[in-house]
């Protein structure tokens, strides 16, 4: 930690990088003993928390400074099925700030150094009281900078296009266990909900790639309608709509045989 010219706190946070590791245990796999996408998303949230905590930027401190992060896009890829018992090494970093968006990349490698999975997120900083979007300069005073000398995992997120006349596939009632400390559905829970529709009763398939776009929060007690249709890209696009028909989440999912 160092002080800037005004004497206030300033941290040299080159890329908000974090390194840690974990074992894939029985809590995080499906019936084929393959690491689930919602579990990977949970670890990704934890990786970001590790990096922020190391920089003295825990959620509580950021909140007191009038800043919280809200996800807008998540793109998750498994380069191969990650199996029960594997040891995974994590490297997460702040790639860049562009307008009001912050991009964070996270690489998951096995013990041989081979890339097993990647997660790219885009989020915006907002005031927790007013939900007003803050420009990327809002964190300049805290010393947040992009990583140097780290190869980015991707670029801007692509637009997700819902095929016309996509049929309604079912409904989902938001439950108490879906809600997080911000009083809306936790980001990883959306992956669980959509995985149920994407995989369903298929015994020999897993989700190899998933892109989510968050449009509006979902809250306890809401009844969500799920629409979906296959695309020419070999994927299926899903949309969650609220009771008034407004779009809450849009997702594109690719599956592979086990």
Write structural notes for this entry:
- The protein has 2 domains: 2-145, Hotdog Thioesterase (Thiol Ester Dehydrase, Chain A, Roll), CATH 3.10.129; 168-257, Thiol Ester Dehydrase, Chain A (Roll).
- The protein contains 3 helices and 15 strands.
- The protein has helices at 37-54, 59-64, 187-199, and strands at residues 2-3, 9-10, 13-14, 18-23, 68-78, 87-98, 101-109, 115-126, 133-134, 144-145, 168-173, 205-214, 223-230, 236-241, 247-257.
- α1 (37-54) runs antiparallel to α3 (187-199).
SSE order, one letter for each helix or strand: EEEEHHEEEEEEEHEEEE
Rg computed from alpha carbons, rounded to a whole number of angstroms: 19 Å
Q: From the coordinates shown, what is the CATH architecture of the largest domain? A: Roll
In total, the number of strands is: 15
CATH topology of the largest domain: Thiol Ester Dehydrase, Chain A
User: Would you identify the CATH H-level superfamily of the largest domain?
Assistant: Hotdog Thioesterase
User: What's the story with the biggest beta sheet?
Assistant: 11 strands, antiparallel
Domain count: 2
Structural class given helices, strands, pairing? Answer: mainly beta
Shape: globular
Q: Mean pLDDT, nearest integer?
A: 86
Q: Report the helical percentage.
A: 10-25%
The span between the termini is 48 Å
pLDDT below 50 for ≥5 consecutive residues: which ranges? Answer: 1-13
- Number of DSSP helical runs: 3
User: What proportion strand?
Assistant: 35-45%
What is the CATH top level name of the largest domain? Alpha Beta
